[in-house]
């Protein structure tokens, strides 16, 4: 099914009978607990609060065990990651409709599906349309946003608004790397598969950015979340003198440059070529691996979307 084919199957999120709401009271500025409890109760949700890290995984499994049809997630991207993990663990990715109430710090996923605030999140849960979107898997772990190899902290991608202003989305990553003090390059092999064709790349990289709902190339923002493909950017190790020029080229042209490659793939394998394991950030969660196999599962998760959401933004 293509993104457009789904238009005919859009269904309002209004009719489901069994609604649960998973609330992370510590997300973002941590001042939303009472509001969510009150609004959630008004809308007839069964509310479950997370008490510790990882708790949203087991609460989600409990919700599935209780036959939940609509699951609202009041939190940020980390909470959402845990909920999707819970759904995957009980093989229920396609049996629940997910809604997002963005009360986290960055809320990248909510923004990418057209939900910008709490009020609108509740409204979309009640009257919004739903779409089936792709989920990535890193070995057996599902992820929604992205898997990044080689950056020491996800934060370095999100904070520097001045660099972003100057260089654009990918450019500011490149420029950000230049400014990072503790940065080690990666000696790796990457194999990408698209339409049964394989492409490989080996060498020293500054980082590899693999987006599911998140786009790093060009102006960044939302990727096509319904095409069953990752958007992959390989940023090669390069002389410091080239970095600013490459960053600016991405700002001005949005195109591949000598040291930056952009491709789409439904499967990506990343393997280390030296002794150091590779550091990955999977939806912001830090892990190390010698190798990692990333695959997309196309259109397996049904989510309530905001009216500004479009499956294929600025292809
Ligand atoms: N009661 C709790 N106490 C402490 N940590 C918790 C609790 N409940 C959940 N968590 C953890 O809080 C982490 C961060 O939550 P979340 O992602 O929702 O907020 P955020 O980091 O502010 O937002 P974003 O990820 O959008 O920037 C999650 O990884 C989760 O494991």
UniProtKB/TrEMBL annotation:
Residue ranges of every copy of the DAGKc domain listed in the record: 14-142
Q: Which PROSITE patterns match?
A: DAGK
A GO molecular function term, named singly, is: ATP binding
Q: Does the keyword Transferase apply?
A: yes
| InterPro entries, sorted | ATP-NAD_kinase_N, Diacylglycerol/lipid_kinase, Diacylglycerol_kinase_cat_dom, Lipid_Phosphate_FormReg, NAD/diacylglycerol_kinase_sf, YegS/DAGK_C
The UniProt keywords, alphabetically, are: ATP-binding, Kinase, Nucleotide-binding, Transferase
An example GO BP is:
phospholipid biosynthetic process
Q: Which residues form a coiled coil?
A: none
Which PANTHER family does the record match to this protein? Answer: SPHINGOSINE KINASE, SPHINGOSINE KINASE RELATED PROTEIN
The name this protein carries in UniProt is: Diacylglycerol kinase family lipid kinase
